[in-house]
């Protein structure tokens, strides 16, 4: 056994495999850190190159990349409040407030340390558990996927805001948007408004980027403040903070361990994996903490939990793929392609004649996780300083990444309309105090859950509900809901509302309007679904029905609060409503920023991205931010060079077929 | 005085010389400095993607001017999105092509998602898509060999979606044999369906050869978990039915099973529908095609290049390594004919296929 393990190590550390591993790690950190890109994109891009490689090199590169996307993704989650990949959405809840307090470096120190620990533990589990894991995987089929999805949504809905009903309705809204396009049975097209663009559904990356990145971008551009809302000098330099973060990680070692176990277990299960593991871990951290008051305002445990869990999924996720030929995620399905390219057969052979190669996977994960965390610690200190830059200086680069990230997913200009539409919705939700993460999770899980439910019912009828694991998950869902409602109730009864320094204030009138609009949207969805066959309509009805009720409840409670507020202030409902819009100049400027973004589309139609994006960067810096020509031209040139090197040379991309260029 | 006519004549002669010189230069180096893009309608790592990339890696060596061939994935709607895109691209010089499973069934069933006419495309080459239907050995009362299928009590067969060729071929095959079964559709690809078999959601599935040989045989057939029951087969000499594929010599075809059980060859409406559904796929399941109106020169060069590629030992060797067997390559003309036959199925067959889709829909209404 030890011999084979050693042979596996030799396969990885020999040349050129080790070179490919390092290359893979760099790619993985990059695609993890850039919102919109992710493991699956990198996997698809790198796969064709493995035709000409030996197996150890090919897997060192692919797995080295795959291991660390969850290390890199912390960067934008903490710095910008935009998830680097779906697996670090929960990191935002406390990571971004930490950055606002000027403690980004501390969040990084903790996150990278626990990422490495989680990742290495996950790899060890891969090594130890292959022989005994089969029954566990087989017991977790479509009915259990569905219930796991419900649990994930309930956790997010009830954890990521102050109001359980707003969290749940956001999740319902995400589920509804996910139903646009061909139904899972392939028979009917739903909510397509006669547009062919919508037949294939709303594109994932533009929706998610629009939802998270555009509102932050608008905020930065309007206020022109740095992300960190404290003086740079007021904190000790980055290094010290980072060491403090590393200490935090070890101080909470028990939490790290528990969350790593959650990650490993969820990673093992084929089906949903990455996108909810961070929420399960975050939920666990909140539920098990004695003092919950700081969660959402920059509690380091809120960073530690999801980051320990998401890296830990990686090793165990390989087990079903390599040992049984069941890829649990899209990335693993691509990896299965790499097995075929190498002429390898997944299955028992991987544990017998190819055991050394299987061990080399383990070693790759171990080395990549440690290397990735080390590199990020070295670099993030510099990057953390970006949080102290004036907002307007980083807006242009965010524009570049957000627009190109959306473009890469489908190379369709419609994706940019979607980006801005959901950017606008996200902005209203953010200003109105509605939690955004449940929407995104509902949107991601919607198709998977509907598919799982559909297959479950076809295979077992409604008896699937009686399967023991599904039933257990159902109990957990109910418990989570009760727990959350009790928690909110208790918070309401406190004489003084707990308000952290960095908690966002919100505009109740926007919240009211959003409630009304959503009520209309859900009602439309409900009425429209009446024409469809039961199988096609079941999921839409199950989403829009409760959606209508929740929207109504929220609208009524906002009106009641406003009436009460209006009376105590001496005015009526009308006065309270007008006052409830908050800072109107700021919203107006927000609209102007959106117009700049529309400008990106217009210029692209005229000149294609290679010219349009640097041009907008230049004009924005000069005429909106009132920076000097030197800075404006400098940034635009850097943008141009980056676009050229990245999308013309490295990943040849079809640009928009412009009118003039 | 030199007449203008003569000058004109000289000019015409000279010009035509230049033109003919130029065209011959084009033929020799038609694809020089060009890039051909294969659009694959499926995700990276799957059967269509891998075979497409294999072809792309070798085809350029057999085209004049050795173009660069790149592969782009544009998954969605069973390949239809990429197919629409290629059909509407407007490029007529052979620089864009579609690779993957073709929308024969979509066109046959008048699927509104398909916005271009498959029969107008220029077929460059086709590859057959044999599939094997296998059943869990522990399905009641125990399926240990193909003939046991006739005794199957609680068979539940999995598929991808109502209108897919896979689902229809699987259901028709079982109907021809007169086997009762439950139909569960909606699996997203072979891996998910394979997991469904392992987890007991379904106990039968029809899977294409590359992943059947590459994944299912080592993990499920050799371990005794499943028993292969029938294969779609390869076209026979006469061209009116299917024979066993030498790659899976131990698995009978539907007609062999039928004959062994009932003592006569299958016939009738069901059998006709089964044949017209499976015949095009047994020659040209996946194909390389260029959009309607592509220049004849480009089409001819690409067709010749594909036939050369098929004979290239380096290509064959890599093919065996990746998909475990030597995939035959049929000429563009043969592929086009097979697809045309499928598209021209009799109105009765068409109606029956539509009825099957509708029944499947009804079955999933609970």
The tally of strands of chain B reads 13
Largest sheet of chain B: 6 strands, mixed
Question: How confident overall, as mean pLDDT of chain B?
Answer: 86
Q: Which class of secondary structure composition applies to the elements of chain B?
A: alpha/beta
Low-confidence stretches of chain A: 493-503
- The outline of chain B comes out as globular
Give the fraction of residues assigned to helices of chain A: over 70%
- Secondary-structure element order of chain B, N to C: HEHEHEHEEEHEHEHEEEHHEHHEHH
Largest interface, with Cβ-Cβ < 8 Å? A-B, 53 and 57 residues
Q: What is the number of helical segments of chain B per DSSP (H or I, 4+ residues)?
A: 13
Folded structure, characterized:
Chain A contains 28 helices and two strands. Chain A has helices at residues 2-13, 17-33, 39-46, 55-72, 74-80, 89-100, 104-129, 134-139, 142-159, 164-178, 204-223, 238-251, 253-268, 274-288, 301-312, 314-324, 330-341, 355-384, 391-410, 414-431, 437-460, 468-493, 508-528, 534-568, 573-579, 584-607, 609-624, 629-650, and strands at residues 181-182, 189-190. In chain A, strands 1-2 form a two-stranded antiparallel sheet. In chain A, helix 20 (414-431) runs antiparallel to helix 26. The longest helix of chain A has 35 residues, at 534-568. Chain B is 46% helix and 16% strand. Chain B has helices at residues 4-28, 47-59, 80-87, 104-108, 165-177, 190-199, 209-221, 254-262, 269-284, 296-311, 313-323, 332-343, 347-364, and strands at residues 35-40, 68-73, 96-101, 122-127, 131-136, 156-159, 182-185, 204-208, 226-231, 234-235, 242-243, 286-290, 330-331. In chain B, strand 1 (35-40), helix 2 and strand 2 form a beta-alpha-beta unit. Chain B is globular, with a radius of gyration of 24 Å. The N and C termini of chain B lie far apart (95 Å). Classes of the chains: A mainly alpha (661), B alpha/beta (366). At the A-B interface, helix 17 and helix 21 of A face helix 2, strand 2, strand 7, helix 6 and helix 7 of B.
């Amino acid at each position: 056994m030890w011999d084979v393990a050693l042979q596996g190590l030799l396969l990885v550390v020999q040349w050129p495999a080790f070179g490919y591993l390092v290359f893979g790690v760099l790619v993985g950190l990059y695609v993890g850190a850039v919102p919109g890109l992710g493991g699956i994109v990198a996997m698809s891009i790198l796969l064709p190159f493995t035709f000409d490689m030996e197996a150890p090199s090919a897997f060192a590169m692919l797995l080295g990349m795959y291991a660390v996307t969850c290390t890199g993704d912390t960067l934008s989650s903490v710095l910008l409040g935009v998830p680097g990949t779906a697996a670090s959405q929960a990191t935002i809840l406390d990571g971004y407030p930490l950055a606002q307090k000027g403690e980004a470096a501390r969040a990084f120190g903790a996150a990278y340390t626990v990422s490495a620990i989680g990742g290495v533990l996950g790899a060890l589990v891969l090594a130890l558990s292959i022989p005994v894991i089969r029954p566990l995987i087989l017991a977790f089929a479509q009915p259990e996927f569905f219930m796991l999805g419900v649990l994930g949504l309930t956790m997010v809905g009830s954890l990521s805001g102050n109001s359980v009903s707003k969290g749940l309705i956001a999740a319902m809204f995400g589920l509804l948007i996910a139903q646009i396009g061909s139904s899972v049975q392939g028979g009917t097209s739903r909510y397509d408004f006669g547009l062919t663009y919508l037949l294939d559904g709303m594109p994932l990356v533009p929706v998610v980027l629009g939802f998270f990145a555009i509102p932050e971008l608008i905020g930065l551009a309007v206020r022109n403040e740095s992300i960190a809302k404290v003086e740079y000098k007021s904190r000790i330099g980055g290094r010290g903070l980072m060491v403090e973060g590393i200490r935090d990680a070890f101080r909470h070692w028990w939490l790290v361990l528990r969350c790593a176990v959650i990650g490993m277990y969820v990673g093992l299960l084929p089906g949903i994996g990455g996108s909810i593991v961070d929420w399960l871990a975050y939920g666990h951290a909140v539920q098990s903490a004695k003092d919950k008051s700081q969660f959402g305002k920059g509690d380091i445990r809120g960073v530690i939990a999801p980051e320990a869990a998401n890296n830990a999924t990686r090793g165990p996720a390989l087990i079903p793929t390599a040992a049984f030929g069941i890829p649990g995620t899209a990335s693993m399905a691509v990896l299965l392609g790499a097995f075929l390219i190498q002429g390898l057969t997944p299955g028992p052979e991987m544990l017998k004649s190819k055991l050394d190669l299987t061990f080399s996977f383990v070693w790759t994960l171990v080395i990549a996780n440690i290397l990735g965390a080390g590199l990020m610690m070295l670099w993030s200190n510099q990057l953390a300083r970006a949080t102290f830059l004036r907002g307007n200086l980083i807006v242009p680069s965010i524009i570049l990444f957000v627009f190109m990230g959306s473009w890469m997913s489908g190379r369709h200009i419609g994706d940019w309309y979607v980006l801005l539409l959901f950017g606008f919705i996200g902005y209203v939700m953010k200003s109105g105090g509605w939690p955004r993460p449940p929407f995104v999770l509902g949107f991601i899980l919607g198709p998977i859950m509907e598919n799982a439910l559909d297959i479950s019912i076809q295979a077992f009828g409604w008896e699937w509900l009686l399967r023991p694991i599904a039933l257990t998950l159902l109990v957990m869902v109910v418990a989570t809901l009760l727990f959350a409602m009790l928690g909110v109730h208790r918070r309401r009864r406190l004489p003084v509302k707990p308000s952290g320094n960095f908690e966002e204030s919100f505009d109740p009138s926007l919240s009211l309007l959003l409630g009304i609009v959503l009520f209309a949207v859900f009602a439309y969805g409900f009425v429209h679904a009446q024409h469809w066959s039961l199988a096609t309509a079941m999921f839409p009805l199950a989403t829009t029905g409760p959606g209508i009720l929740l929207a109504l409840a929220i609208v009524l409670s906002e009106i009641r609060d406003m009436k009460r507020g209006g009376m105590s202030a001496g005015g009526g409902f009308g006065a309270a409503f007008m006052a409830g819009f908050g800072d109107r100049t700021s919203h107006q400027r927000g609209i102007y920023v959106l117009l700049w973004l529309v400008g990106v589309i217009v210029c692209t139609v005229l000149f294609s991205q290679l010219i349009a994006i640097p041009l907008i960067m230049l004009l924005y810096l000069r005429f909106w931010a009132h920076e000097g020509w030197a800075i404006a031209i400098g940034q635009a040139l850097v943008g141009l060079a980056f676009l050229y090197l990245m999308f013309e040379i490295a990943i040849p991309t079809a640009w928009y077929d412009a009118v003039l260029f | 005085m030199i007449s203008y006519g003569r000058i004109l004549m000289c000019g015409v002669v000279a010009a035509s010389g230049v033109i003919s010189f130029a065209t011959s230069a084009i033929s020799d180096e038609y694809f020089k400095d060009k890039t051909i893009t294969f659009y694959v309608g499926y995700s990276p790592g799957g059967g269509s993607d891998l075979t497409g990339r294999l072809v792309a890696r070798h085809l350029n060596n057999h085209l004049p001017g050795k173009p660069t061939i790149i592969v782009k994935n544009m998954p969605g709607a069973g390949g239809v999105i990429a197919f629409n895109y290629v059909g509407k691209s407007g490029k007529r010089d052979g620089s864009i092509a579609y690779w993957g499973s073709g929308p024969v069934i979509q066109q046959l069933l008048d699927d509104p998602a398909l916005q271009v006419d498959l029969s107008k495309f220029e077929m460059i080459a086709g590859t057959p898509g044999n599939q094997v239907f296998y059943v869990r050995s522990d399905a009641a009362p125990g399926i240990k060999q193909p003939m046991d299928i006739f005794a199957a009590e609680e068979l539940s067969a999995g598929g991808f979606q109502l209108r897919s060729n896979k689902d229809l071929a699987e259901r028709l095959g079982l109907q021809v044999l007169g086997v009762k079964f439950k139909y569960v559709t909606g699996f997203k690809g072979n891996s998910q369906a394979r997991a469904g078999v392992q987890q007991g959601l379904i106990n039968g599935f029809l899977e294409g050869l590359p992943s059947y040989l590459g994944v299912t045989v080592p993990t499920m057939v050799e371990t005794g978990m499943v028993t292969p029951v029938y294969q779609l087969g390869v076209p026979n000499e006469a061209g009116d039915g299917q024979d066993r594929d030498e790659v899976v010599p131990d698995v009978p075809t539907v007609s062999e099973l039928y004959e062994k059980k009932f003592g006569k060859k299958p016939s009738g409406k069901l059998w006709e529908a089964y044949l017209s559904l499976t015949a095009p796929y047994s020659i040209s399941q996946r194909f390389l095609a260029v959009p309607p109106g592509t220049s004849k020169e480009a089409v001819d060069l690409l067709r010749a290049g594909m036939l050369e590629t098929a004979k290239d030992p380096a290509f064959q060797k890599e093919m065996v390594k990746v998909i475990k067997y030597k995939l035959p390559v049929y000429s563009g003309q043969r592929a086009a004919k097979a697809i045309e036959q499928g598209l021209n199925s009799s109105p009765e067959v068409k109606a029956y296929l539509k009825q099957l889709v509708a029944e499947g829909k009804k079955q999933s209404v609970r």
